[in-house]
Structures are given as structure tokens and as C-alpha cells.
From TrEMBL:
It holds the Pfam family GMC_oxred_C. This is GMC family oxidoreductase N-terminal domain-containing protein. Residues 78-101, 249-263 form the Glucose-methanol-choline oxidoreductase N-terminal domain. It comes from the Bacteria. Its cofactor is FAD.
Length: 500
């Protein structure tokens, strides 16, 4: 087997599979290198099953993390062909125009990326709209018929009754409101970028010879020759490439860069890694959506086992963000298996920023993750607002607490900021939407430029959710695939050509 390729893609997740499939489809000799398994066990594909999110599951990196002072947790990330998209919830919503405007990266306005969002999808509900695609690899639909949970319409009705506007298509780039969640699940099964872009066994007959997939192969470090990256180190061998694209996800990517000597000097020295190229923003200044769950009362009808959990959401403005800095998401199945169905209340545009640092040069040692959630007054204010609005929705739908021990906040907690802050801290979790750990831009903390090239190094790009300067106001799964699509054009130098 050859060790030389045109492009090595590190990490076969949402962005990596998309990129590798598109490159190989154009005849680019591509190696796709994945740390996890390349065969997805069938029991992990039912969309309602979040079994692989449990710590210890073979498809899950399960990183230990600190969410805020005194609150530790284990954060799931996909470790398998398809990456986090192979174990996620199937909520498939684009970032909103204001996200791209806030990031302010030339060439990355909403209008610039819309062709890529369209190219990846076949939207069954809105295919005649010029905002949507009708021929992409991912089939997008919204809960309907048998697969719409009995709680979904009452949730939407309660939102409207409380005066919140409707958002009929959450992928139209319009103002926030209440509406159904688009999903990429099909027939009750999870469809990852691997399923969509790399048909088994990894490619179409016309182009699969251009693609080599390495499974169970963690990339230990990048190989540098001066200021040029020439390939990657895996299990005592080097894979050489004219170009290396790191798509190891928002945890794996900064960890690999740091292990390779690319990152903040103090972090590298503390971990015992020689500094090859100082870039202060690697692993710093990222964000994610802090969240808490409010349970629905017991006794409501269970949804069908093959229905998606995340059925509908209210996106709204806490008072300072017309594009919607809060999300209240109806989970018809519980996120954590075994519990009650619930509303997930999340701050979608947090100000608090996290830190990631490797602790040694060894690729087997997991990085340290410090989310630093709810550090700012504004974030605590937003989180309280989300919980109180969710409690109003529960009341309006007739789903509020059945008893004092159902796990939700009591009236005396909801009515008092200090007590509610305490309840939130005790129940705090993460949406698992980490973004921005190798951010795109031109400032001192930027890691990649608008072409996704790592500043100051030749032959190296990053193309995954690490590059988003902040977590988008909606979940990042759709945006990760959009980045993979766009990276394929950038690598091939055909920016502006939007068709496959
Ligand atoms: C449990 C869970 C539920 C989620 N639910 C949703 C949802 O419903 N909707 C939504 O919008 N978002 C959701 N997300 C987030 C979303 O799925 C991710 O943000 C997105 O898939 C990230 O894509 P990515 O390409 O950046 O990284 P990933 O898809 O995580 O891919 C990274 C890949 O790189 C591999 N890798 C890492 N390090 C190395 C290395 N050194 N060598 C080789 N390979 C390596 C990993 O094993 C992985 O396969 C969820 C995430 C999780 C974990």
C-alpha cells in the first residue's frame, strides 16, 4: 500500500468524510485516516438511541471536562467513521445569517456559504425553494405523520399561545421562532456524512480507487519540515502528502496541533512539547452551548421508537440578540437514556469562552477541557431567561411538574435569581456543540485564514467545527458538513464552482 497521497485528511467525521468523498470523487488521491472503527455497529444507527453517548462506549472518546467551577462531566464525541455525526441527535439546522455576519471573515457571509448548504442536501419539504437543495447526498425532512411525537404540536401551540412567532422553516435563514426541527435521519436511522458521502465500501465504482481509508489509526503528530507540513505520523510510519487537512473535530484538531508543536507556547511547554510554530489561539477562546433540562410531567404518550428525539424548538431573543440567543428544544425521547422527556434550555450565543490543553506529548493522553460556562453576568442572565420561558411553556402545555421531586426547578427557585443560579449550576450540562478551537480569521488568536490554511505554515489546513469563530446560534452538525463541502472546493482551487 502506498504511503504517498495528494491529500491526507485526518479524522473521518462530519467534515472529514464530506471532504474526502468530494476530493476522491474528483480524482484527488486521498487518504482518510480515522482513529476509531470504520465499521459502524448496526445497533448504534437507530436515531432514537443515544447509547453511544454513554461513557465507555467504544464509539465515544468520552472526555472528562469541567463545565464550571465544581461541575465535572464526561463529554461524548464520536470516535468512528462518521465522527460525532454517527452518534448525534439528528438535529440538522443551519447557522443563521447573523452568525456569519458576527464572524466577519471575508468570503464567509451567509450568501457565500448558502450554495454549499444547498449542495449537501435534498430537502424533501422545501425542495422548490431557492434557499434549498434538491439533489444533495443528505435527505432532510421534518417530523411528520407517524414520526411526529404526540407532544410536538402541543409544544408548538404553547409557544404560539405565549406570543412567540412561528418559524416554519428553520433552514430558511429567517428570524427566530417556534418550528419543527429538520433532521437528516431517514426511516428512523442516523445518516452520517460517512453514510451519505462514502457509500460502502467507501466510494463509488468510478472513484473509489482514489480513496484509501485507514481505520483504527490515530494520527500521533503532523510531520513538519521547517514551515511546511509534509504528512502525518501513524503507528511508526509516515503518510506523505502535498497537503494535509485536519478534520479531527473541535477537540481532536487542537489536541493534534498542540501535540505537533503548534499552539500557545505556555501550553506546549507545560505538556513537554517543543514549540515548532507558536499560535496562541489553538485550543483557546472556543465556545459551546450551556444547557439544562426541564422534565415533562410523566404519563404523556411515548413517541414511536424510530422518531427523532429533537422534534421542535423555540429559538428566541433574550433581549439583546434579535437573531436568537436562546433555544428551547423539545426532546420527545430523553437525551440521557431512561429519564423523562424534556425541554432542553440552552444559551446559543454565550460570551464565556473555554480552554483546551494537552497534558503530555502522548496521543493516548486525553486533553484537559475547561468549558468555563456561565462566567459572565450576561450568560447567567440568559440561562435564567431560558429556564423561565421553558417553565412557562410547560405550564401552557399542561406539562408542568407532577411532584416536588421530578428534577425540575421548584417555584421558589424559579422566582429567585440566586436560587435559580444554584439550580442551574447543579443541573448544568453541555449541548456538545464545541466550536472555535482553531478559529478562522486574521487577528492574533486566529489559527486559519479564510482559505482554511493554518497561518504561517504551508501544506496544512483545518476544515471542521474548530474553525467556526464561535459556536453558531443553532447546532453545528449541518455547518460541519457545509465546511467539508467548501473545503473540497478550496483544496481543489475551484472556489466559486458550487456543483459536485
Ligand atoms: C452525542 C452528540 C450529539 C450531538 N447532537 C447534535 C445534533 O443533534 N445536532 C447538531 O447540530 N449537532 C450535534 N452534535 C454536534 C455535531 O454532531 C458535531 O459538532 C459535528 O458532528 C462535528 O463535526 P466535525 O467534523 O467537526 O467533528 P467530528 O464529527 O467529531 O469528527 C472528528 C473525527 O476525527 C477523529 N479523530 C480525532 N482525533 C483523531 C486523530 N488524532 N487521528 C485520527 N482521527 C481522529 C474522530 O474519531 C472523529 O471521527 C452532537 C454531538 C455529540 C457528540
Amino acid at each position: 500500500m502506498t504511503d504517498s497521497f495528494d491529500v491526507v485528511v485526518v479524522g473521518a467525521g462530519s467534515a472529514g468524510c464530506t471532504l474526502a468523498g468530494r476530493l476522491a470523487g474528483r480524482g484527488v488521491r486521498t487518504a482518510l485516516v480515522e482513529a476509531g472503527a470504520v465499521v459502524v455497529p448496526p445497533d448504534s444507527t437507530p436515531i432514537a438511541s443515544l447509547a453511544a453517548t454513554a461513557p465507555g462506549h467504544v464509539l465515544n472518546w468520552a472526555y472528562r471536562a469541567t463545565l464550571c467551577q465544581g461541575r465535572e462531566c464526561t463529554v461524548p464525541r464520536g470516535r468512528v467513521l462518521g465522527g460525532s455525526g454517527a452518534i448525534n441527535g439528528g438535529y440538522f439546522v443551519r447557522a443563521v445569517p447573523a452568525d456569519f455576519a458576527d464572524w466577519g471573515v471575508p468570503g464567509w457571509s451567509y450568501d457565500d456559504v448558502l450554495p454549499y448548504y444547498r449542495r449537501l442536501e435534498r430537502d424533501l419539504d422545501f425542495c422548490t425553494s431557492d434557499r434549498h437543495g434538491d439533489a444533495g447526498p443528505l435527505r432532510i425532512s421534518r417530523p411528520s405523520g407517524r414520526l411526529r411525537a404526540a407532544t410536538t404540536d402541543p409544544f408548538l401551540a404553547a409557544c404560539l399561545a405565549l406570543g412567540h412567532p412561528e418559524e416554519p422553516d428553520k433552514n430558511a435563514g429567517g428570524p427566530p421562532g417556534a418550528g419543527l426541527i429538520p433532521t437528516n435521519a431517514v426511516d428512523g436511522r442516523r445518516v452520517s456524512a460517512a453514510t451519505a458521502y462514502l457509500p460502502p465500501p467507501w466510494g463509488n465504482a468510478e472513484w473509489k480507487d482514489a480513496l484509501t481509508v485507514f481505520g483504527g489509526t490515530p494520527v500521533e503528530t503532523l510531520v513538519l519540515d521547517g514551515d511546511r507540513v509534509t504528512g502525518v505520523r501513524v503507528g511508526g510510519r509516515t503518510l506523505h502528502a502535498a497537503e494535509t487537512v485536519v478534520t479531527a473535530g473541535a477537540v481532536g484538531t487542537p489536541a493534534l496541533l498542540q501535540r505537533s508543536g503548534i499552539g500557545p507556547e505556555d501550553t506546549l511547554r507545560a505538556a513537554g512539547v517543543a514549540v515548532a510554530h507558536e499560535l496562541p489561539g489553538v485550543g483557546r477562546g472556543w465556545s459551546d452551548h450551556p444547557a439544562v433540562f426541564l422534565p415533562l410531567r410523566s404519563g404523556l404518550p411515548d413517541p414511536p421508537a424510530d422518531a427523532v428525539a429533537a422534534q421542535a424548538a423555540l429559538n428566541l431573543d433574550s433581549g439583546t440578540d434579535p437573531a436568537g440567543d436562546l433555544e428551547i428544544l423539545l426532546f420527545a425521547h430523553p437525551f440521557a437514556p431512561g429519564g423523562p422527556a424534556h425541554l432542553m434550555c440552552a444559551v446559543q450565543r454565550p460570551d464565556s469562552l473555554g480552554m483546551l490543553a494537552i497534558t503530555s506529548p502522548d496521543h493516548d493522553d486525553p486533553p484537559r477541557l475547561d468549558f468555563r460556562y456561565l462566567r459572565t453576568t450576561s450568560d447567567r442572565h440568559r440561562m435564567r431567561a431560558a429556564v423561565r420561558i421553558a417553565a412557562e411553556i410547560l405550564r401552557a402545555a399542561g406539562w408542568d411538574r407532577a411532584g416536588p421531586d421530578d428534577g425540575g426547578p421548584a417555584g421558589w427557585e424559579l422566582g429567585n435569581d440566586t436560587r435559580l443560579d444554584g439550580w442551574i449550576r447543579d443541573h448544568l450540562t453541555t449541548s456538545v456543540h464545541l466550536s472555535g478551537s482553531a478559529a478562522m480569521g486574521s487577528g492574533p488568536d486566529a489559527v486559519v485564514d479564510a482559505g482554511l490554511r493554518v497561518h504561517g505554515l504551508a501544506g496544512l489546513r483545518v476544515a471542521d467545527t474548530s474553525v467556526l469563530p464561535r459556536a453558531p446560534r443553532r447546532g453545528p452538525a449541518a455547518t460541519a458538513i457545509m465546511i467539508g463541502e467548501r473545503a473540497a472546493d478550496l483544496v481543489c482551487g475551484i472556489e466559486g464552482e458550487h456543483r459536485a
